[in-house]
Amino acid sequence: MASIAATELKIEGVRSLVRFSGRTEGEEAVVFLHGNPGSSEDWLDLLAATGEFSRAIAPDMPGFGKADRPRNFDYTVAGYARHLARLLRELGIARVHLVLHDFGGPWGLAWAAEHREAVASLTLINIGLLPGYRWHKYARIWRTPVLGELFQLSATRPAFRFVINADNPKRLPDKFVDRMFDDADWGMKRAVLKLYRATSDFDGMAQQLGDALKPLALPTLVIWGDGDGYLSVSYADVQKRYFDAEVHIMPGCGHWPMIDEPDRVRELLVPFLRRQTGR
C-alpha cells in the first residue's frame, strides 16, 4: 500500500481538504468522490491501493468532512461539478478516472458531461444514472421544509448509529459511523438540506447526462451492494444503457460495499484501474 498524505486547497475562497497517494504530479489521476454523509476518509483503503500505480486524490467536498461549509456556496449538483472542475484545474489534472459513490455520482457525472475530453473511465459504487428514481425515506424528510430541520436537529449519536445500522445488512464499524456523526455539524446538515432540496428531476438528469456521456462508451466498473436500502440494486444493470459497463453485485452488502467488504471491492477496483491508467 502506498502512503497517504493530505493538503488543503482554497478554491474561490472555499477551503477543501484533499488526501492524495502515489505520484504528486502528472496530468492523469484517479479521483475519488464521496457522497452524503461521507468524506475523503471513506476511501482511505482504496486510495492507498491505487497510489501504488497512479496518482490518486480524494477531496472533501464543500459542506462535508473537513471542508468549509459556506452559507453562500452553490449546494447543487451543478455547483459541486463546478467546484470539482476548479479543484482539478488547480491540481493540474487533465485526464481523470472517476470513482464515485452516492451523491459523488451526480457531481462527478455532471462534471464529466461538461469535460468529455478529460474523463477516461468510471467506477460507480452504488450510484449511477437513475431514471425514475424515487427518494428514500430520509431524503423525503430532508426535502420537506421545517420537518427536515427538526429531524437534523434531533439527531443523537445513539440514534444515528441505530438508523445507519438498521438500514445496512451488516453492522458497520463503530469508528466509521462515529466519524460520520462527528462530521455532521450544523454546517454539514444545512448543506445536506440545500443539496437535497435543489435536486429532484432524476429522469431529466439521466436523459441529459446519458445523452452527453453515452457516445463516449466509457469503460465503467459498476459495484453495487444488493442490500442497499437507499438506492436499489436494480439500477446496477441500468448503467449498461449508458456505459461500457461490467457489473458486479455484492451479496450481503449495503450502501457502503467498500466498508462492508473492503477486500473484495479492492480486488475488483485495482485491476480495473490498472488496465485504464496510462493508456
Largest sheet: 8 strands, mixed
Distance between the termini: 23 Å
Overall average residue pLDDT: 96
Q: Helicity range of the residues?
A: 40-55%
Low-confidence stretches: none
Strand order of the largest sheet: 1-2-4-3-5-6-7-8
Number of strand elements: 8
Report the portion of residues in β strands. Answer: 15-25%
Radius of gyration: 17 Å
- What is the 3D shape? globular
Commentary on this structure:
- 44% of the residues are buried.
- This protein starts with a strand and ends with a helix.
- It has 279 residues and is an alpha/beta fold.
- It contains 12 helices and 8 strands.
- It has helices spanning 44-50, 77-91, 104-114, 137-142, 147-153, 157-166, 174-183, 186-197, 202-213, 235-238, 257-260, 262-276; strands at 4-11, 14-21, 28-33, 56-59, 95-101, 119-125, 219-225, 244-250.
- It has an 8-stranded mixed beta sheet, sandwiched between helices.
- Helices cover 41% and strands 19% of the residues.
Descriptive keywords:
single chain; alpha/beta; 8 strands; 279 residues
Explain the layout of strands and helices:
Elements lengths: L3 E8 L2 E8 L6 E6 L10 H7 L5 E4 L17 H15 L3 E7 L2 H11 L4 E7 L11 H6 L4 H7 L3 H10 L7 H10 L2 H12 L4 H12 L5 E7 L9 H4 L5 E7 L6 H4 L1 H15 L3
Quick take:
By secondary structure, the protein is α/β, with parallel strands linked by helices.
